[in-house]
Amino acid sequence: MENAFTIAAYVVAAILFILSLGGLSGQESAKRAVWYGIVGMAIAVLATLVGPGSGLWLASLVLIAGGAAVGYQLATKVEMTQMPELVAIMHSLVGLAAVFVGFNADLMINYISGVYEAQGLVLGTVGEDGLKAIGLPKEVHDGLSTFGQLIAKKSSVEIGILRVELVLGIWIGAVTFTGSVIAYAKLAGSSSKLPFTVDTGAKKLPGGHFLNAGAAALSVLLLIVYLSGGGSWALVLLTLAGLFIGYHLIMGIGGADMPVVVSMLNSYSGWAAAAIGFSLGNDLLIVVGALVGSSGAILSYIMCKAMNRSFVSVILGGFGGPAGEQMAVEGEQIAIEADGVAQALNEADSVIIIPGYGMAVAQAQQAVSELVKKLRAKGKNVRFAIHPVAGRLPGHMNVLLAEAKVPYDIVMEMDEINDDFPDTDVAIVIGSNDIVNPAAQDDPNSPIAGMPVLECWKAKQVFVSKRGQGTGYSGIENPLFFKDNTRMFYGDAKASLDKLLPMID
Question: How far apart are CA 98 and CA 269, in angstroms?
């Protein structure tokens, strides 16, 4: 009966997870989708405690309480601008869990083998039914854990499959762990809590891709050695190879492409979870892992298309660095004060606003919303242009604008609005840099060469709200800031907009 309840609960939880994932595709359904996920996870945890974890209630509840406390602290203290690095570090925990579960499975297989040998039997012996099928006395069988009893009932072929599953879980988990830690370090920059800092540029050790290929080949060799009875030492070396691949892959990707990396690591963490599910014989973990893995891979592919990158190149960590010397940027940045921006906006008929990470850092979305209300009240055509990777995380800007009650119908994707810039009176760039950089089109040696960008420089006037003259996350200069029709509105985005709002009449 308990097993039937667990299976039924897992089915319900899986359906809720699927509904949650589907609902997250739209802003209006996202809030409901989050609740689907919360309820689904609650059902899954309860079903696990009643079923496979019925003998571990105390330990499980203590761990759940501890995790809930940590999660609450993160949810209340982490700013929206820190979400990309938070997601990355969470992926690392999934990868680490996969590594631990895989080694636990290997230890359990070795332990059960020892139990069998003590009984004069061989693990994988198959009889007709019941305890005869596992060849163990009842008292010995009952003394094993739930996972141990599951392994004890497997045939030799099933044991071999389990070994393959745990190796995949360990290897994918190891790659995900170190890759996610490096991604976190690159995203967090100087605010990283790690004992080391990582340059946002693309860095590879001498040998580049040959090192990755060599580590991958070594992993395959160690898999063969392990499956041939080589022992747990092969697993340890295979784990080290996976840890190196994760580190070197992500180190080789430039900062401007980190949004794709976060999505890719999300996919890796999903496949790691699925591998855990196969090892533990947990159907829900398999389903959820497959959902996360496939959706992350699809999102990575969509983002690669949006950035004109090769999906295979992303997976192999093969992009992010310039091919030669970049074009020099000539001219000077011309500053403008709030009254000049206000005059242009009061005279304009059409306005396009391009939000970016700087808007999120300054928490200026409410001020932007007020500006939009004032301009629309004057009969002006105001719209937002959203780049697929604006804000270092897909959907980052959409979430902030929805939070500020900006109407959904004026928030446009890049492909919908890019052709409208030549007919636009004023384009306002708020905290964006790389996604409005014309070097992506004009400089083949730029780290972002070929990446589709918002062509705001084609508008009649461009105002850039920016703290100072620093470069963007990719670390390259932006020729937009030096163009004749561009003026730099220096200062904190929220403070600048607060100064501008009273001048809009």
Answer: 9
Residue 15's Cα: distance from chain center in Å?
Answer: 23
Assign residue 381 a region (left: φ > 0; alpha: ψ between -120 and 50; beta: otherwise): beta
* Pairing mode, strands 426-430 and 461-466: parallel
How far apart are alpha carbons 149 and 144 in whole angstroms? 6
Provide the Cα torsion 407, 409, 410, 412; round to 10°: 130
The per-residue pLDDT for range 273-311, each reduced to its tens digit, is: 888 888 777 888 888 888 888 888 888 887 777 667 776
Closest CA to 33 of 11, 45, 18, 13: 18
- CA dihedral (166, 168, 171, 177) in degrees, to 10, reads -90
Question: What's the pTM?
Answer: 0.76
Query: What is the distance between the terminal CA atoms of the chain, rounded to a whole angstrom?
Result: 71
| Encoded tokens for 228 | 């041939």
- Known active-site residue 349: no
Instruction: Yes or no: say if 108 and 154 are a contact pair by the CB < 8 Å rule.
Output: no
Sheet holding 486-490, edge to edge: 411-413, 381-386, 350-355, 426-430, 461-466, 486-490
3-class DSSP assignment, residue 386: strand
- The residue from 257, 420, 434, 443 that is catalytic is 434
What is the spatial distance between Cα 287 and Cα 294, in angstroms, rounded to a whole number?
11
**Eight-state DSSP code of residue 349:** S
Q: Which residues pair with 426 in a beta bridge?
A: 351, 461
Rounded to whole angstroms, the Cα distance separating 242 from 237 reads: 9
* Residue 230 identity: G
Give the strand pairing for 350-355 and 381-386.
Answer: parallel
Check whether 1 has a pLDDT greater than 60: no
Calpha distance 372→272 (Å, rounded): 44
Over residues 180-204, the mean pLDDT reads: 73
Structure tokens at 397: 């800007």
pLDDT for 171 equals 92
Q: Residue 268: which of 416, 55, 90 has the closest Cα?
A: 90
CB 91 within 8 A of CB 180: yes
Residue 242 to residues 156, 175, 235, 247, 379, Cα–Cα distance (Å)? 27, 5, 10, 9, 58
Q: What is 460-493 written as a DSSP string?
A: SEEEEEESSS---TT----GGGGSTTEEEEES-H
CB 102, CB 173: distance < 8 Å: yes
Per DSSP, what are the bridge partners of residue 464? 429, 488
The residue ranking higher by pLDDT, 314 or 368, is 368
